[in-house]
Amino acid sequence: MSGHSKWSTIKRKKGAADAKRSKMFSKVIKEITVAVKEGGPDPAANPRLRLAIANAKGVNMPKDNVQRAINKAGDKDSTNFTEVTYEGYAPHGIGIFVECTTDNLQRTVSNVRSYFNKFGGSLGKNGCLSFVFERKGVFTFPVGDIDLEELELELIDAGAEDIEENEGFITVTTAMEDFGNMMKKLEELNIEPESAKLERIPLNTETLPVEDAQKVLKLIDIIEDDDDVQNVYHNLELTDELMAEL
Asked: Would the pLDDT of 6 be above 80?
């Protein structure tokens, strides 16, 4: 099972057990806001908004909340967000890529830099991890009563590079340029993904002793908890030994 799938599983479990669902809702609302400002409030004419709505369903956001977010984003006085990324290294050379959506760039970069510094890492220049990660489409949905053999053929036709099943969920990975094709294919098959995103997948992963790896994961947790942070990616190998500790 690849590292990004393991990480997705951890985050899904964490999210399911997390009493502060408002934090997940806040991230989705930002996605909706940016999508509406970029392409308008009609999901039929705005692919990015359709994707944000699908991700809202994936975290069980009520329909009323989704519609309220769409309506609010259309107001001329609504908050303007900027999307920004940061790249840096955790201790022991582990690469960390941070995606943020913020209404205050100075606050965000100051916070992110402080997290790296506090845990013995360093914030680098944009592009310093360009050789570490590549962008891929990643789709996650429950197995349900799906016939996996038939489904695999359909998904491969739509550009699936990797299909994994784990703990009742299927994770499909595509090249970035096939993201839209896979979205259309899942719609045709009446499969509603719990999550559908362009993620940054490590080309190679690094293995650390469990104690060192746990310190890196602590840094990642701290960064993820920041309200301005949407996604965090890393190239730490999640070994079976480390997973057992988690």
From this structure: no
Specify the amino acid at residue 170. I
Q: pLDDT (tens digit, 9 = 90+) per residue, 68-79?
A: 999 999 888 888
Q: Are 133 and 200 in contact (CB under 8 A)?
A: yes
Q: Is the pTM of this model over 0.90?
A: no
Task: Give residue 91's identity as a one-letter amino acid code.
Answer: P
Q: Could you tell me the residue range of the domain that residue 116 belongs to?
A: 82-127+204-245
Residue 236's CB is within 10 A of a number of other CB atoms, namely 23
Residue 190 class from Cβ within 10 Å (0-12 exposed, 13-18 middle, 19+ buried)? exposed
Number of structural domains, the chain? 3
Same domain, residue pair 101 and 140: no
Q: Tell me the CATH number at 15.
A: 1.10.10.200
How many Å separate Cα 118 from the centre of its chain?
Answer: 24
